[in-house]
Amino acid sequence: MSAGAGGLWASYGWTGALALVWLVLLAGTVAFLGYRLVQSRRRDAEGKAAAESARAVQMLERSSQRMPLLEFVKRAGRSGWDVSGRSIEIMDLLQGLRKACAAGMVRTWGRPISPNPELMRTELHRPIPDNHWRSFEFDVDTIVGRADNFETKSCNLRQSDRHNGGYIDIYVDQQAALDWLDAGATEFRRGART
To answer: Does a structural domain hold residue 159?
Structure first.
């Protein structure tokens, strides 16, 4: 007998050859299933990491949800502030909020004011730096009696063009602003209400 492939089959017989085929199939199946298991665990780990990341982002968003400035003013009105413009309380409220923003206690976002109105409508909101509020203030004229938050602006009354360098469509950090309204705003109210 020759020592080729036929000799190998002949020395094992049909049962041995069949066992060898099954052994090769079993080894292939084990390797395939092992590979699939590793992929599955990797996907699970990536899924868990993505879920944890999404939860972290969600917590950050919850802690820093943006609130339109006009909505904040309405909330202040529901808390007892006269925001109608018939008294100076709206000015007290906004002056106090400005100081809280300058101190970094309340974050703000807005769109940079531009001579191109179309550009301002499409511009993305940007964080307004804390030091912006050292020179600029909330423009009361763009807040009192307004319905569209897009009209809210910051202004510098010491400039001839008071809106130059300012922001439009202002938003505040909801939680920080409401916490400030509950805890720190009253110190800016001039005198007791009648």
So the answer is: yes
Are 53 and 81 found together in one domain? no
Give 112-147 as a DSSP string: E--S-HHHHHHSPPEEEPTTHHHH-EE-GGGTTT--
Number of separate domains in the chain: 2
**Tens digit of pLDDT at every position of the chain (194 positions):** 445 555 655 666 667 767 778 888 888 888 888 888 888 888 888 888 777 776 665 555 555 599 999 999 999 999 899 988 888 899 999 999 999 999 999 999 999 998 888 888 888 899 999 999 999 999 999 999 889 999 999 999 887 787 888 999 999 999 999 999 988 888 888 764 44
Asked whether residue 193 is assigned to any structural domain, the reply reads no
Q: Is residue 44 part of a domain?
A: yes
Say if 3 falls within a structural domain.
yes
What global pTM score does this model have? 0.64
Whether 101 and 179 map to the same domain: the answer is yes
Write down which residue in 63, 98, 113 finishes a domain: 63
Read out DSSP for 77-125? HHTT---SSSSTHHHHHHHHHHHHHHTTSS-EEEEE--S-HHHHHHSPP
